[in-house]
Amino acid sequence: MPNRRFADGEVVMGRWPGSVLYYEVQVTSYDDVSHLYTVKYKDGTELALKESDIRSQSSFKHRKSQSSSSSPSRRSTSRSRSRSPGRPAKGRRRSSSQSREHKDDKKKTIQETNLALPVLCFSKPSENNTKRYNGEPESTEKNDTSFVILEQKLKPDMETERVLEHYSLRPRKEEKKKEEIYSEEKIFETIKTVEKAASKPKELEFGGRIGTFILIFFLPATVFYLLLMCKQDDPSLLNFPPPLPALESLWETRVFGVFLVWFFLQALLYLLPVGKVVEGLPLSSGRKLQYRINGFYSFLFTAAAIGTLLYFQFDLHYLYDHFMQFAVSAAAFSMVLSIYLYIRSLKAPEEELAPGGNSGYFVYDFFTGHELNPRIGSFDLKYFCELRPGLLGWVVINLAMLLAEMKIHNQSMPSLSMILVNSFQLLYVVDALWNEEAVLTTMDITHDGFGFMLAFGDLVWVPFVYSLQAFYLVSHPTAISWPAAAAITVLNCIGYYIFRSANSQKNNFRRNPADPKLAYLKFIPTATGKGLLVTGWWGFVRHPNYLGDIIMALAWSLPCGFNHILPYFYVIYFICLLVHREARDEHHCKQKYGLAWERYCQRVPYRIFPYIY
């Protein structure tokens, strides 16, 4: 095993990754397995460097002193010999040769000095080189590697200009003027080119082009399969495939009209001038979009409208009887909306495109979303679909299933299982609408474009898959005892408490870390200026909000009993979804926080499930 060359605490010169620049750093530790040194820059940034990227300070000082000490002696010798009358020719020859040596030494000094000093002011390592906060990515910040690429691209030209400045006969004013023109025009033109190239996603999610092409068909097929299975007398996985209905029975124009009325009613409520207006996170251009927070008011108005319809004997059983047709109508609408979104995104400016949906591949960008925040005037299509038609539709569907159960089984009261499912999921929806402003910091808003993935997820997957337990209980009633119902209620309350308190803890700390109420929280400082919480829920597991989500999902499925696995599809799906999100969060956090994130992972080893994962 190779010997260690630099000791802990030693101050050395470390090369900034991706460049030829060396900066003063301090060695903090050494990994015997990877043979990497952990070094700390003056601005607090910590990186892992190879031994070949580290040099002692004495080597730089020795070279500089050697070149600088030799030049004056040679100049004095040259002057003394050129003045000697006894050896004029020989003196001139030797002076010429030494002058060449002097120039070589001078060039060498310039090159060595360039290793120790930054070429451009913005290529110095800063706190923006590694970024990310607990649990979620912030996609509005630019990729700082563009500055390193830019530095490598411009360094040869800058070095040439510096050498010419030493040997050129042109006046210094002309050189400064030229450098100013170069800085104002050439540099920033190159910055735009590099940032445009850096905005392209390097890694494709969901299996890339092939995976997203399959998902465009697989997701609707999954929804239809689940709904068909719930209608079967024996919804066992062994009974595959379920009997397929006639194609003409899947579409009904009246049902599609009802769906459109619902969608545009929610759009009208979204436009009402009630509720506060807040700003979202800064975009890549620095601009902040404004959002009206009135989702809870829309919920109250919708509840009043549904109550009025029920008072006048409007039968919500129609929704249960045409449930499959409503799902088909929503899927067709989401496809048309996705096509419109992609076509309009082709004319969107570069800075308005989504970081993850700008790959240049049609299928992938169509699926993930090409434009980040598509708007019609002030109407934000993505933000509207995120919480309104699908989430509120989920509550209305659950209510329709409760009434359908009572009608089909001639009950004066809904079953205890149905009451639990409706109550738990209603609490979840109301919490989301009450804390509507928090959605502005999620990846769906800040990072993901609005394409088929979110359009189908918001308008089809959420209302028709999340209501799977209620739909299942209509055809497969399950009786549970009061003690079992109490235990399930406690489980849901535990999950909700973890979910809400973890999110509130993180949001409060992010807004005001100096709040005296949060003085008990400990955190790991990072080069970005933000902190990684290592106490409270975020010191228990890395993603406690995901843990709360999964516990609640289990509580929603337990009232359906254990006769079939179908009601637990949501739990399985939710675990897979959150594990995927957690892996994406881990990748982004490691890129943003660097070694600080590694120390956080050592301090908090479990990701979602304590002592398991």
UniProtKB/TrEMBL annotation:
The chain crosses the membrane at residues 210-229, 249-272, 293-312, 324-343, 454-474, 480-499, 520-541, 561-580. It is an enzyme of class 1 (oxidoreductase). Residues 99-110 have a biased composition (Basic and acidic residues). GO terms for biological process: cholesterol biosynthetic process. Its EC number is 1.3.1.70. It catalyses: 4,4-dimethyl-5alpha-cholesta-8,24-dien-3beta-ol + NADP(+) = 4,4-dimethyl-5alpha-cholesta-8,14,24-trien-3beta-ol + NADPH + H(+); 5alpha-cholest-8,14-dien-3beta-ol + NADPH + H(+) = 5alpha-cholest-8-en-3beta-ol + NADP(+); 4,4-dimethyl-8,14-cholestadien-3beta-ol + NADPH + H(+) = 4,4-dimethyl-5alpha-cholest-8-en-3beta-ol + NADP(+). The keyword Transmembrane helix applies. GO terms for cellular component: endoplasmic reticulum membrane; nuclear inner membrane. One of its GO terms (molecular function) is Delta14-sterol reductase activity. Pathway: Steroid biosynthesis; cholesterol biosynthesis. Residues 76-95 have a biased composition (Basic residues). It is found in: Cytoplasm; Endoplasmic reticulum membrane; Nucleus inner membrane. Residues 66-75 have a biased composition (Low complexity). Residues 53-110 are annotated as: Disordered. Residues 4-62 form the Tudor domain. This is Delta(14)-sterol reductase LBR. The lineage of its organism: Eukaryota, Metazoa, Chordata, Craniata, Vertebrata.
